[in-house]
Amino acid sequence: MISVLLGVLIINACLPVSSGMDGTLLKFLVDASILFAPTRMTAFLCIDQNDALHLLRAMSNAHLSYDIRISNHNLDMRVSRENRHYVSFLLDLNCPEAITILRQANESALFVGPLKWLILQDLKDRKKQNDSYLDSVFGNLAIFPDSELVLAQRLDKNSTRLLSPYRPSPYHKLIIEEIGLWDLQNGVTLLNHDVSSRRRRNLANTPLKSCLVVTDPDTINHLTDYQDKHSDTITKTNYPWIMHLVRMMNATVTFSIANTWGYRSKNGSWSGMIGQLARGEIDIGGTATFFTAERIGVVQYISLYTPTRAKFIFRQPPLSFVSNVFTLPFRRSVWIAIGVFMILIFCLLHLTLKWEWFNTSAEERVRRHWSGNVYQPTMSDNLLILVGAVSQQGSSYEARAIPARIIILMLLVATLSLYASYTANIVALLQSTTDSITTLDDLLHSPLKIGVHDIVYNRYYFESFQDPIRKTIYEQKVAPKGRKSAWMNLEEGVSRLRQGLFAFHGELGSVYKIVQETFNEDEKCGFQEIDYLNVLDPLIAIQKESPYLEIIRIGALKIHENGLQTREIRRLYTKKPVCHKHASFVSVGLTECYAAFITLSYGTLIAFTIFILEIIWYKRGIVEDVVQPFDYVK
Ligand SMILES: *[C@@H]1O[C@H](CO)[C@@H](O)[C@H](O)[C@H]1NC(C)=O
Ligand SMILES: *[C@@H]1O[C@H](CO)[C@@H](O)[C@H](O)[C@H]1NC(C)=O
Ligand SMILES: *[C@@H]1O[C@H](CO)[C@@H](O)[C@H](O)[C@H]1NC(C)=O
Ligand SMILES: *[C@@H]1O[C@H](CO)[C@@H](O)[C@H](O)[C@H]1NC(C)=O
Ligand SMILES: *[C@@H]1O[C@H](CO)[C@@H](O)[C@H](O)[C@H]1NC(C)=O
């Protein structure tokens, strides 16, 4: 015997009326330790202290180390949750108090796995040999498929039969499995090395109860036909899985309907599906539920997840919305260079035009009357030439002298190339979007409006967050006091998403399904997601300490491995639409031209102010005589 049994052997030495310990029994107990992993064993044997010492000696001769305590009749049946894998019990059925001990163990729910039991029965007693005796002892106990209970029936002096009684469910009679044999020569021979929940997958039509969470009443009619995939997607995804699980166990299932997953109310009770699980009204939750800290210990999660992700979906706002696109085509240094260049041109033009005027004779000026250059060129002529060139308009003043013409030509060529690069850039910029919104904080401070899908879990989680950013988003944008709140249905949310400048919080699959159906091809581009709820993917939950835990766990793994999980997910969850980059015509609206309008209105304002100042100036007679025509000849 190589394996080492670590732990404590607590011997509850009952009245020493017993058969006592013979060598064969000791040998059996030593051999039977392979049925149990290293454990801490509590023994209820009616042996005296001498026999207890014999047992311990036998154990240590076989290199099995025990920690021994001999306690009195007080049975301490409490087992802490953490140690359950290391705990086993040993009971002699022939002891007078055996039945009482079994009842007590039943009350403390000690027959659930992974707690282990080894029960000794000596068949010397003839009337206890038949099956109806076992039925009367075990038939009413909560020994279900997960229990690891081994009954060792001593057939004759040298051989023992190993049985394992259990019931598939509370509705079934006791089933007695034969799991192996022990004899003096060969030791323990097991027929099957699987653990009990692997052997007992056939629950023989046990009626299980489950619960579906349904937020749209019509879902009941479309659980398997893949219609209306956007409503209660998770219920429709999980329903076939539950049916597979139930079929694997050869059980039947009935569903109740709940309208919420279930949350803890102030008085500590749970509502919805979780409430039904917590109260033991159903065996298995039919709809996956979020894995949250407060639900741990209330239900047992099975690792069969559904990738339901509710997030904020939005498109980044156009660039023109967050900054003035009209200044963006050139860098600041280029703008400064252009300014310096214009000032330079202005000065040079002023010099050359003056020079031209003074170099032209009076007759020449008369001849030029028709060409418009009748007055001495002023600063404003100069400015008009400049503005005309910059705005690609030309001007009425026509320079005649070669130096002035060279400068004007240079000005026109320079502004043409600037104009070409500016317009090329501005078209691209008007169509581009920012990438400024990447976190919840950005979203809070962005111009985007917010909408939230009105569904139970959103209602619950949005109200429950206490961190500053989420709380502010909720108070300012989702449910602002005195204004319209942001709760809306899916269709409305998606249609506002299409209009832009809007972030919608909804389940990605459902939103993308409606996007896929209603948006134009070029509108399906540029979606971004921000997580708000900060939860893991939902998992299937079952009753705590359910006798079917292991069977369901294995079934869930099989559903995952066979691809049945992926099958439903693929069919029901719409992926993010692929953007085909058909960059279509982008219409430029008022928002894009905002800066231009601002410039225009300031310009008008300044013009009016100057106009009024001129009137005042004129009324006061400050202006001297207006220059008379034809005074150029003087
Ligand atoms: C089986 O045991 C019960 C007592 O538990 C007894 O009444 C019955 O007669 C026995 N049946 C047979 C066939 O021995
Ligand atoms: C064992 O416990 C179950 C519930 O846990 C109860 O229904 C059953 O009656 C109990 N059996 C006995 C014999 O007390
Ligand atoms: C039990 O085994 C012992 C030792 O191997 C042997 O002497 C004895 O005859 C056996 N008894 C029976 C009833 O088989
Ligand atoms: C399911 O259980 C019933 C009732 O015990 C049994 O008749 C049937 O053969 C079982 N089916 C399978 C596939 O094991
Ligand atoms: C707890 O509160 C819920 C409603 O919030 C109510 O339905 C339930 O009866 C209450 N339970 C107890 C034990 O007071």
From TrEMBL:
Membrane topology per the entry is: Multi-pass membrane protein
Give the residue spans that cross the bilayer.
334-353, 402-422, 594-618
Q: Name one GO cellular component term.
A: plasma membrane
Tell me the leader sequence span.
1-20
* One Gene Ontology biological process: detection of stimulus involved in sensory perception
* GO MF, any single term: ligand-gated monoatomic ion channel activity
Question: Would the keyword Cell membrane be found if you checked this record's keyword annotation?
Answer: yes
Q: Which residue numbers delimit the Ionotropic glutamate receptor C-terminal domain?
A: 333-527
What is its subcellular localisation?
Cell membrane
- Pfam families (alphabetical): IR75A_N (PF24576), Lig_chan (PF00060)
Classify the source by domain of life: Eukaryota
Q: What Gene3D superfamilies does its record include?
A: 1.10.287.70, Periplasmic binding protein-like II
Task: Supply the alphabetized keyword list.
Answer: Cell membrane, Glycoprotein, Membrane, Receptor, Signal, Transmembrane, Transmembrane helix
Can you tell me which family this protein belongs to?
Belongs to the glutamate-gated ion channel (TC 1.A.10.1) family.
Question: What is the recorded name of this protein?
Answer: Ionotropic receptor 5
Q: Can you name the source organism? A: Cephus cinctus (Wheat stem sawfly)
